[in-house]
Design a protein that fits this description.
about 425 residues; alpha+beta; SH3 type barrels; Fumarylacetoacetate hydrolase, domain 2; 2 domains; eight-stranded mixed β-sheet; about 15% helix
Length: about 425
Amino acid sequence: MMKSFIEVNPESHFPIQNLPYGVFRPLSGGEPRIGVAIGDYVLDLSVLDAAGHFAMTAVNKKEVFKQPSLNAFMALGSKVWHEVRRQIQNLLHEDISTLRDNEILRNKALHHQKNVEMLLPAQIGDYTDFYASKEHATNVGIMFRGKENALMPNWTHLPVGYHGRASSVVLSGTDVRRPQGQMKPLDKTTPLFGPSRQLDMELEMGWFIGPGNEKGETISLRDAEDQIFGLVLVNDWSARDIQSWEYQPLGPFLAKNFATSISPWVVPIEALEPFRVAQPRQEPEPLPYLQTDGAGSFDIHLEVHLQGEGMKNPQPICASNFRYLYWTMAQQIAHHTIGGCNLRPGDLLASGTISGPEKGMRGSLLELTWRGNEPIHLENGEERVWLEDGDKLIMTGWCQGEGYRIGFGEVTGRILPALQ
């Protein structure tokens, strides 16, 4: 097994097999720049680039690591990402002396993670949220339309999605203000205005687009994964009472545009290859542009923990897996562009809520409490149907290898009261 000269705990999310990218700024000062996580450290790629350690790669003299976002690097494409990744792994390898034995360079290039501020990894031009979990769509459909009409007629034929709000995508750790809007309770004849009473979380994963495509062109299913720079954890907060009133006949608006939280580290899709698995069987067979015969998913364990203001420690409330998604990332990209929509470097696509076949695998409170009828019992005696002010959500995920993990870190957020 490949190992780094930097000691990494077997349960760390960031071994040499991972090397996720992020944008950081040292707490001691300086401009934002790009690094990779290795164990408890951040490796400053701009320092290595300035020292000439990427001279034999296509990023040479482009200064793509001396940037406040990953967009310029994302735009260079999968072949460049691959060669840069190989060079970073070589520099960090336990048997390679180049960085290991150069104390001056090592001290300049390595920062402990506690000594840096993480920033949004990309300048996100557009954000698209899908609805790709059959279990989630079925659960929601049963609640609102009954078991016989759980899935809409189009659901098994195409990846359903909507265009979200990129400006309110925020980094993990950012507090989330309870949104206000119109709601129409079942016992009322007219809508009322006020803070959402049914604030929810959504366990999702997202992926950043690389080079993208020209307007009017498409990205084929065969080429779609080459467009995926890397993946992040996503909590797409939802105000269910606002959503149920406003989404007809169009779609989510105020219920979804107040905040979407993402984790800071972008895990390269190449790091996930050892964990590739087949997606669920698709029936009926999709139309030709969506047909796939390969393993298009990944075995990524996902967890959600909740910590109320009166709780000493977070409590697990959900455990799911990325492999349950019915529609793959490649299918979602192919469908997104089939009409000629142009994707651009840094665009964020997300999966929609990821739920599994068992109750404890439901990726939203809407499902876990079955629309409020089955409260979650917390260890301190409290109950939850929806999120309360002061609640903190922690989502995490990883792939488990032999003696190592490919992890995504965490995406966290705490609920603040609505504006008065």
